[in-house]
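Standup, Tuesday
Yesterday: got the pipeline producing structure tokens again.
Today: sanity-check two examples.
Blockers: none.

Example 1:
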Amino acid sequence: MPEGQRTDQPDRLTVVIAAYNGEQTIGRLVSAALASRVVETVLVVDSASADASARVARELRAEVLTLEENRGYGAACNAGLARCTTRWVAFCNQDIEPAGDMFAELLEAAMTLREAGYPEVIVAPKLQTDDHGFAETAHLLPSWRQEVRELLFGQSAAAVRNIVVDGGRDPVRVDWVSAACIIGPVAALRAQGGFDDSYFMYVEDVDLFQRWQARGLATFWVPAARAIHTGGRRPISGRLYARSLSNWVRYFARTDGAVAAAIVAVAGIAGALARGVFWAVRSGRDPDAAGYGRMFLGGALGAAQLEAGMLRERLRRGRQIKPPAPGAGRPRGKPE
């Protein structure tokens, strides 16, 4: 597939699937994508999986791009974006299970929105959990103060997550959606530089949509299109939760400055410790509590270590910057 080439088919789609050790789930997504009437290409970007993810995708007739190392979700999506030959691209986690022809429903919604005055638009389906509850879907961009409230007191305190739970069937404009499943215009995403792949994992979607919105572009949640996100509500490891907290700190350092980021860091660590203790106490009565306890306590410790390491690095760099010598920078020669 020639890198960077575009076709003249406005109603066709490339589905980019970011894969890492996903042999148990990726086949269902590949099959659903290949069966869609609007999908031109299914491209699985395999981030050096140790399992048979790439083989499963090839056997189903998907194209496979194998990366030499796992550089994270954003990097995998960017690698796929660079190879798109259609005008539209879908980015999907490997554990997404579309309901019906979700890709066609989303693309048709995007085309309708373009005709309604949104020339460059990202759309996303209603995401649901295995038990058909609501997963992370449609949100407002948080201020750093709202994020502090969420980290300390929970999502309801911030009032920015899952702002629309059941919006009927009409598209709803929102600030950001989970990048576990989105469709957007290839040219506009390339012009923005895609994801900031230095995030590796977590908050890369918030960063993408904040920059998208800053360019005056729109994002819509399309509840008529649905998908199951099978990994949507499971506890993650303490190491990954620490990375999530650290990425929030990085995000707010960029958007609001060092002081706001430091407050977010303290709130994140304190909130994780409090939640960790809460779940640890419940571990004898709740079968899921032990996993959440390890996630939060391990996350608090890991985030503290990450932030301490970055502080030491900033101090080290500061010591290496020597003040200019007296007279440095003055023009040579006789004064006028």
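Example 2:
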Amino acid sequence: MSGLNRINAPLILAILSAIIFKIDTGHAASNIPWKKLPGQATDIGVGANGAAWIAGTDGAAWNWNGKTWVKIGGGSITRIATDPKSGIWAIANGTQIWRFDGAKWRHLPGQATDIGIGANGAVWIVGTDTAPYRWNDKKWIRVGGGDLVRVAVDPNGNAWVVNKSNVIFRYTSQGFKQLPGRGTDVGVGADGSVWIVGTDGAPYRWNGKNWQKHTGGIAQIAVGPKGYPWAANDGKEIYVDSRSLKASSTRPSGTSSGCNRPGDDRGSARNQFSGNCRK
């Protein structure tokens, strides 16, 4: 028996090595042609029409015009999302919810720590109680449990969320369904492409069954209308899949010729949420 083991051992090792090599090769990270953009951001939002916005490290909202970031206004913004008409929805002053339509800022009811918008205009937030809420054009309606930290919305208006334990869920007609993998942030494009930031800091794309790893080290992610990611890393540096830059940048009407100060619809909010609009 000892002689047989000596003869078969090299063969067994060779077979095992081949299997391991195939597994590693099959799961190799797919390359993303990342392009670094100027500026710094704490969050990124990309609309269904390709309009890209960031919450700058100065707390203001900035729009990508194809060459650089143009400051639109706002203050103390930490999270940002964009609706199909390029309107901005933001979390500012801690947990306040604001909406900018290109002419003025409007302070909405409720409090939140994150916000996401689908290509169909559906808006979801993570409330300060860590539960998911959906906007019904008048108020926020609680949908399901809690312990959430991040939310994004798919083209059908369904939320994809990450909880405090980095577990990923998606909303279905039967409620929230747990998915494989672990993540710290999630983004969904207008084409339905879903990306997460893995707990290893790498971007992963959903293939319908599991998450496919791609190259990069990021902390925040958003997705353009054609499925290409935009991201910010731990150093707040901004990166984009260069293929996404072919999409046009669109601001809500009114911002190119100036806008009122955020909070003008509520006088008491002027000193709480202010900033400069582009003239």
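Quick observation on example 2: The chain is about 10% helix and 45% strand. The longest strand covers residues 175-188.
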